[in-house]
Amino acid sequence: RFGPGRAARALPPRLLLLPLLPLLLGRGLCSAAAASSSGAAAQDSSAMEELATEKEAEESHRQDSVSLLTFILLLTLTILTIWLFKHRRVRFLHETGLAMIYGLIVGVILRYGTPATSGHDKSLSCTQEDRAFSTLLVNVSGKFFEYTLKGEISPGKINSVEQNDMLRKVTFDPEVFFNILLPPIIFHAGYSLKKRHFFRNLGSILAYAFLGTAVSCFIIGNLMYGVVKLMKIVGQLSDKFYYTDCLFFGAIISATDPVTVLAIFNELHADVDLYALLFGESVLNDAVAIVLSSSIVAYQPAGLNTHAFDAAAFFKSVGIFLGIFSGSFTMGAVTGVVTALVTKFTKLHCFPLLETALFFLMSWSTFLLAEACGFTGVVAVLFCGITQAHYTYNNLSVESRSRTKQLFEVLHFLAENFIFSYMGLALFTFQKHVFSPVFIIGAFVAIFLGRAAHIYPLSFFLNLGRRHKIGWNFQHMMMFSGLRGAMAFALAIRDTASYARQMMFTTTLLIVFFTVWIIGGGTTPMLSWLNIRVGVEEPSEEDQNEHRWQYFRVGVDPDQDPPPNNDSFQVLQGDGPDSARGNRTKQESAWLFRLWYSFDHNYLKPILTHSGPPLTTTLPAWCGLLARCLTSPQVYDNQEPLREEDSDFILTEGDLTLTYGDSTVTANGSSGSHTASTSLEGGRRTKSSSEEVLERDLGIGEQKVSSRGTRLVFPLEDNA
Amino acid sequence: RFGPGRAARALPPRLLLLPLLPLLLGRGLCSAAAASSSGAAAQDSSAMEELATEKEAEESHRQDSVSLLTFILLLTLTILTIWLFKHRRVRFLHETGLAMIYGLIVGVILRYGTPATSGHDKSLSCTQEDRAFSTLLVNVSGKFFEYTLKGEISPGKINSVEQNDMLRKVTFDPEVFFNILLPPIIFHAGYSLKKRHFFRNLGSILAYAFLGTAVSCFIIGNLMYGVVKLMKIVGQLSDKFYYTDCLFFGAIISATDPVTVLAIFNELHADVDLYALLFGESVLNDAVAIVLSSSIVAYQPAGLNTHAFDAAAFFKSVGIFLGIFSGSFTMGAVTGVVTALVTKFTKLHCFPLLETALFFLMSWSTFLLAEACGFTGVVAVLFCGITQAHYTYNNLSVESRSRTKQLFEVLHFLAENFIFSYMGLALFTFQKHVFSPVFIIGAFVAIFLGRAAHIYPLSFFLNLGRRHKIGWNFQHMMMFSGLRGAMAFALAIRDTASYARQMMFTTTLLIVFFTVWIIGGGTTPMLSWLNIRVGVEEPSEEDQNEHRWQYFRVGVDPDQDPPPNNDSFQVLQGDGPDSARGNRTKQESAWLFRLWYSFDHNYLKPILTHSGPPLTTTLPAWCGLLARCLTSPQVYDNQEPLREEDSDFILTEGDLTLTYGDSTVTANGSSGSHTASTSLEGGRRTKSSSEEVLERDLGIGEQKVSSRGTRLVFPLEDNA
């Protein structure tokens, strides 16, 4: 038997889960339609009843529309204010910070401006002995209705949850963030990682992302465990809080998201290496934090004492971490490679619309494939984005390149600002906040110490191997840029069932607010205080079809077509002892990476794109037929002109400026002829010009050019 | 008490409603997270139980991912095959037809290739006296679970519904089509209506769309009522089928969707007027069909005999039709106008990303606003699209123009092909088909007759008023192009609760299949058989920033900047008696439209865009301040060159070819200077050149040029 009085209650908030699409409208309408039709068909006495249900559903549908409309208007307002800020060159507040402020305001209005409507929530009386099923069939006066499980409600909350209908309406299902909003953000991040400087600093970035996040997670976890112990002694803790919970908090709060800082870097053209380090770290450590947090959740020791240390369970967690991470990585890479192959071997580039649609679908299928196989979709999407940028992008037509970029740029922009405005809203509308000042202060101290403990020691060790040291000012800037953002929020809101998780969620929210506003606002002063060079001319990714000019340092463009040559790794012509030593060190320390790079250059690029040396020259003779099939005809066409022009560069006084004319893109997707430079310097190398990489030893002052020797350098940072 | 054995049952199919976003993944994951957390927190004996729930949810989540993946791979396959077809210039099968075929194949595999899993569906025992509520709270051994209403299940189906889990998985909530898939399709249609020929044929298009759809609806409805009566006599009808049901069927099946024909027209450059007539009719009659069908559903006579004729209820239905239609129209127009104002008075065009995001959000908010106010979102979105194309588009930056076009093009493409592949799938996976051969044959005859009864008589009446008659071959082609597509399907699947509706759904599905395959394939032969000119040089919408050349007839470009002039309607200089008569007829018949056109040109365009005459000249003197505020400074800048060049045109031998250099777009969004023509003819008009419209009386042969008089013509087709 069911208690009466739940009629006025509208659709549950988890239906409101669609930030991008008005799906939620579906349910209301549908029940209305079903009710209306059965009413027309049956004509029985329950027609009035069903009319009431229909009215109710319609009302609920309207409320859903209104609440979604609220978010859209919020975003519109944010966009207009951002424009005003950009127009006036205001830099102290980023769009995400602004979105949060507007969200906060709307949250306050909803919380205190709308009447509480808790009256119509009555008790219930349908009991069940066994367990909860995901679907119920209910017999209502001869008619059968199907109900689906929405979730558990803690008994104490039954009467308080329903405080305010509007508050419920604007509360989204947390999984929306993971399944709808984060994928485009993460994919866009991966897709825009196609920067020379990312690959140049790959070693450091991987170290920061993997080691750094692990270190940060454990340090924060342990510090927070101390705080929790303290709270227990003081008597501020009203429920259980285990060590694994602390570690979980450490994992979710270790996902940095310096979107504010990076936007300012971009605008001010700050140092490109620092940008690459920060951006690369933040992108990859999101992936690490997701997998780390799910491994910690998966830590379930055998026996009754489920929160003691258990070596077997620990290693199982480590195994889960490695398994999920490598699995997701593989999924992402595989779909990226498949897309590259498809775009290479079909002439889809004649139809940009088809090409863009295919690109979108394949990238989305990565997410679903990973989820279907039990891996993490968001992580897979990240690596898919990187693969797509590295291979598929080169096969796309010019129009599709801009289309895909713009499509994901818009999706990313909308999703990101939606999350941040939702964060602002959640501070007031979320119903289960647990504010614990001790925990919050402890968390702020812990994240500060955690970041310090990973940036400074790691930078020290990395500097031992790096030729271009990460200076103190860079380290301080990285330390400073430890903002928390969308990923930490999404991880924290994913599970707010227990007391510990609720406290974590509240704390995470406050940390995000504080870091985005304070650190975001302080970036410009910090940059000048730390003497970090700004105004470096580095064209953005949008100018990729134009020439690239790079000042101060000679970078590596991994996307540029190298001329075909087999003996790519016979590094020659270093006529100074310094460069020779550098080579040796490089060869010793980074053989694994070089192996990969050579493999990528000699086999993967030729197979997956229209660039690179022909496979007929790189593959052994016995697979000549296969090589001929896989090699794109464009490669042969590009062969001659490349060999002649690839070593051109310009030397101007003061700065060493190398012109790498970016590969001009032809309509059939091949990227070939390099643009000529204005002045030639050094000997026109004939044989050892096989790599696209030229690097000058710039000395300490960075302006002193030692132009005697040209050397072959791989996109590595650790050539001491 | 609840019966056992429903554990293995996965998430219900209505969760699977997300074609574009993996929302469905949310629910599975979420329950898993909730279960896992409560398990960690509680540590009670129910931990094992919850682990089972978690496993179940995870399994369901995977199945959801797999089924969505199926659709994505289906679309990918479709894209690749389309490419192959386009590459080989195969025209007999359109991409939508292809998507249906692939959908059919997958449907067959799912239906007959996967094992039926009906074993685990047991009976239920939780009864309720009162009525169905939208939410239930269920007490399971001390824990409370929340359930939401999914819908009613007819008692006979309880044990048969669950035949096959996979079939359930791939069945979407019908409202998905209305709330997610149709809006981008319809918006794109409206947004790409920015064609001269649409406005030129507006009168005819409106007549076909409104009168034609109403005529077609009533004729089909009445014919089908006859068929139903016949079936009752023969004994083939097993359940009720009312007259209103027949009318409803007439409404949903009157929505034409000649996507296949239009694609071929586009490719072959078929006659532009015919294209405009067909496209305009199909776009607008979708809107009419939606509103018409909901008005018929709303027809509820007072008293017990709910299916007899009741004048009050009838007029109420008519009122509802008018109310919903005008309300939705207003919503769409208002948001379009607001967007135009915002883009005009901010300098958002410096930031194309912000501009695009704003455009997207505003267009989406139309849908929500209309739904929130109780109007029809899809209809509102259509008119919003038209308004955006007419006004906002002119204010956007060049980059945003292409961005918005491409964004909605991709969304439209994906949504359309998704619907068609779902249609193919639904033929085999939909569980409630009612195949009735008599009804199906009757429906085919009825739609044929219904289309004939609206095309030929309407064309006859329109030809009385049209100068350029709609020839017999055009009428036959329009008759032939009565394909049914996405809209008819979405309307039919929206409600399949009763027997009559299920029969309608099955019939609609078969009609769509038949028309898309047979008519789509027969378009090219039909064009040549009917002697319809193809290969007419008409640049597509993408070339808008280039010059437009138009042969054979002089069209009207409503988006072109007219020179500022007050006395727009003093039509002068018709020195032949023929043209004078033409003017008089025009002035008599179309005064309403001309009033609107002059209002649009003199007030709306200057207020909403950077084009048109300055408001300071068109508004009365006493609102000079307001006029000065609203007029864009660009208008004054554009004033001089426009006046000089606007009457330039070229006369080549044979054809009359007028060059209207399209407004060249400057970076700040203003569209101004007209390109000069090569040869000038006729007197350079100084005063009466106020309208952008120049039309020559072409006589009967269309090649005989009487170039003595220039006349002012409005974008109307009915100037006899």
Automatic annotation (TrEMBL), chains A, B:
<feature type="transmembrane region" description="Helical">
    <location>
        <begin position="357"/>
        <end position="390"/>
    </location>
</feature>
<feature type="compositionally biased region" description="Polar residues">
    <location>
        <begin position="663"/>
        <end position="680"/>
    </location>
</feature>
<keyword id="KW-0813">Transport</keyword>
<dbReference type="InterPro" id="IPR004709">
    <property type="entry name" value="NaH_exchanger"/>
</dbReference>
<feature type="transmembrane region" description="Helical">
    <location>
        <begin position="319"/>
        <end position="345"/>
    </location>
</feature>
<feature type="transmembrane region" description="Helical">
    <location>
        <begin position="176"/>
        <end position="193"/>
    </location>
</feature>
<keyword id="KW-1003">Cell membrane</keyword>
<feature type="signal peptide">
    <location>
        <begin position="1"/>
        <end position="26"/>
    </location>
</feature>
<feature type="transmembrane region" description="Helical">
    <location>
        <begin position="437"/>
        <end position="456"/>
    </location>
</feature>
<feature type="transmembrane region" description="Helical">
    <location>
        <begin position="277"/>
        <end position="299"/>
    </location>
</feature>
<comment type="similarity">
    <text>Belongs to the monovalent cation:proton antiporter 1 (CPA1) transporter (TC 2.A.36) family.</text>
</comment>
<keyword id="KW-0739">Sodium transport</keyword>
<feature type="region of interest" description="Disordered">
    <location>
        <begin position="554"/>
        <end position="585"/>
    </location>
</feature>
<feature type="transmembrane region" description="Helical">
    <location>
        <begin position="410"/>
        <end position="430"/>
    </location>
</feature>
<dbReference type="InterPro" id="IPR002090">
    <property type="entry name" value="NHE-6/7/9"/>
</dbReference>
<feature type="transmembrane region" description="Helical">
    <location>
        <begin position="247"/>
        <end position="265"/>
    </location>
</feature>
<keyword id="KW-0967">Endosome</keyword>
<keyword id="KW-0050">Antiport</keyword>
<feature type="domain" description="Cation/H+ exchanger transmembrane">
    <location>
        <begin position="78"/>
        <end position="529"/>
    </location>
</feature>
<keyword id="KW-1133">Transmembrane helix</keyword>
<feature type="transmembrane region" description="Helical">
    <location>
        <begin position="66"/>
        <end position="85"/>
    </location>
</feature>
<keyword id="KW-0732">Signal</keyword>
<feature type="compositionally biased region" description="Basic and acidic residues">
    <location>
        <begin position="682"/>
        <end position="699"/>
    </location>
</feature>
<keyword id="KW-0915">Sodium</keyword>
<keyword id="KW-0472">Membrane</keyword>
<keyword id="KW-0406">Ion transport</keyword>
<dbReference type="Pfam" id="PF00999">
    <property type="entry name" value="Na_H_Exchanger"/>
</dbReference>
<feature type="region of interest" description="Disordered">
    <location>
        <begin position="663"/>
        <end position="702"/>
    </location>
</feature>
<feature type="transmembrane region" description="Helical">
    <location>
        <begin position="97"/>
        <end position="114"/>
    </location>
</feature>
<protein>
    <recommendedName>
        <fullName>Sodium/hydrogen exchanger</fullName>
    </recommendedName>
</protein>
<dbReference type="InterPro" id="IPR018422">
    <property type="entry name" value="Cation/H_exchanger_CPA1"/>
</dbReference>
<keyword id="KW-0812">Transmembrane</keyword>
<feature type="transmembrane region" description="Helical">
    <location>
        <begin position="205"/>
        <end position="227"/>
    </location>
</feature>
<dbReference type="InterPro" id="IPR006153">
    <property type="entry name" value="Cation/H_exchanger_TM"/>
</dbReference>
<feature type="transmembrane region" description="Helical">
    <location>
        <begin position="505"/>
        <end position="530"/>
    </location>
</feature>
